[in-house]
Amino acid sequence: MATATATPEATPKPAPTEEATPAAAASAEAFQGVRGIVDPSNFGWPREVEGLNGVVSIAAKPLTIITASVGHDEMTLAIVPIERLVAVGGSSKNATYSNVADLLQEKTEISRDPETIIAQEPDIIVTSPFFSADGIAALSKAGIPVIQTELKQGPEARINNILLMGYIYGEEERAVEFATEVRERYEALIAVTGEVETQPRVLALTQYGDKIWTAGKDSTEGGVISAAGGLNVAAEAGIEGNQTTSLEGVIAMNPEVIVIAQPLEFGAAEFRQSLLDNEALAELPAVKNEAIYVVESKHFTTLSYWNIRGAEDLARILWPDELGDSESPAFSLAE
Q1: Does residue 179 contact residue 167 with C-beta atoms inside 8 Å?
Q2: pLDDT tens digit sequence for 110-124
Q3: Closest CA to 35 of 120, 162, 130, 137
Q4: What is the pTM of this model?
Q5: Is the dihedral of CA 71, 224, 154, 325 positive or negative?
Q6: Number of structural domains in the chain
Q7: Residue 218 belongs to a domain with what CATH number?
Q8: Which residues make Cβ contacts (< 8 Å) with residue 226, sequence separation at least 6?
Q9: Would you say residue 46 lies in a domain?
Q10: Are 222 and 215 in contact (CB under 8 A)?
Q11: Rounded to whole angstroms, how far apart are CA atoms 224 and 178?
């Protein structure tokens, strides 16, 4: 990871140091060991964090925020009041991809073009590894702190993401509160799925064009399958991340359940039917038992806490007697 400190021209002049609030100080223990926090004992301003693009100084509590990232927008709305998120990308307003689209319809829509972002005058930009290096350089030159953070799947990474973003935004108390909510919800699921004696063999598949994709080790969908109490057969087969596969590969993996985390408007139902109709797959347990399910893709592929909802959805498919058909509760939002 880079450790270069942002240059003086890329960082706003620091505001006078403020003392930590009692609430922040009381929650200080929760921030020990959080990746990305340079000094976890510092709850005043300025403060420093280390993103994928190096160490960045934050002069004062940011009151206007842009992320240009769906997963980061989902995380941000759980931590800060919605009015502090001043503009969003089109994908965050699209219900196909975003779990918070309904909340963002009135927000200004931006692209990743630096000029459109600078025009919104954000105090800070917290964004994904996919934002271009040239774009980050342009924004930093304009005096806007930019922090690239990972949004990795997995229970510990998820909590780290929440606490790091809470620290960046100066919302430590809310971050600790929400991290507790997310952790308890995950642990409640694992309390059921972690006790199963035999894991069903589950395969995540999608089809775009003439290519079939599957999700193996260290994929977001793979994490969802594991949390739901399934055995990810793509990971068992040695597949890492999201890779293409073939019908022969699907047969070799011998899934008992197939989940299709693909939007309906992009052919999920047609792909499901093609699997059921393919004579070469007729003896596959998932096909023979018609255990092929189109699931809500934005719960399975999002890089935020919303993939817990995907695991809850899948767990109800795999363990209907244990979990029933009740709907998952909503996640709380910052007030």
Answers
A1: no
A2: 999 999 999 999 999
A3: 162
A4: 0.89
A5: positive
A6: 2
A7: 3.40.50.1980
A8: 232
A9: yes
A10: yes
A11: 20
Q: By the 8 A CB rule, do 88 and 100 touch?
A: no
Nearest Cα neighbor of 77 from 171, 189, 185 is: 171
Which residues are paired to 294 by β-bridges?
Answer: 260
Assess whether 95 and 236 both reside in one domain: no
The average confidence (pLDDT) of the chain is: 91
1 falls within a domain:
no
Provide the 10 A C-beta neighbour count for residue 322: 13
* DSSP 8-state symbol, 209: T
Beta-ladder partners of 232: 202
Is the distance from CB of 212 to CB of 192 less than 8 angstroms?
no
* b/e per residue 240-260 (b: at least 16 CB within 10 A): eebeebeeebbeebebbbbbb
Residues 280 and 218 in one domain: yes
Q: Which amino acid is at 13?
A: K
CB atoms within 10 A of CB 299: 20
Burial class (CB in 10 A: 0-12, 13-18, 19+), 215: buried
The percent helix, strand, coil of the chain (3-state, each to 5) is: 45, 15, 40
Q: Residue 289: name the closest of 264, 318, 265 by CA.
A: 318
Residue 298 has pLDDT above 80, yes or no: yes
Tokens 């064009």 label which residue? 209
Q: Do residues 145 and 12 lie in contact, with contact meaning Cβ atoms separated by under 8 Å?
A: yes
* Residue 330 within any structural domain of the chain: no
> Which residues span the domain enclosing 16?
8-170
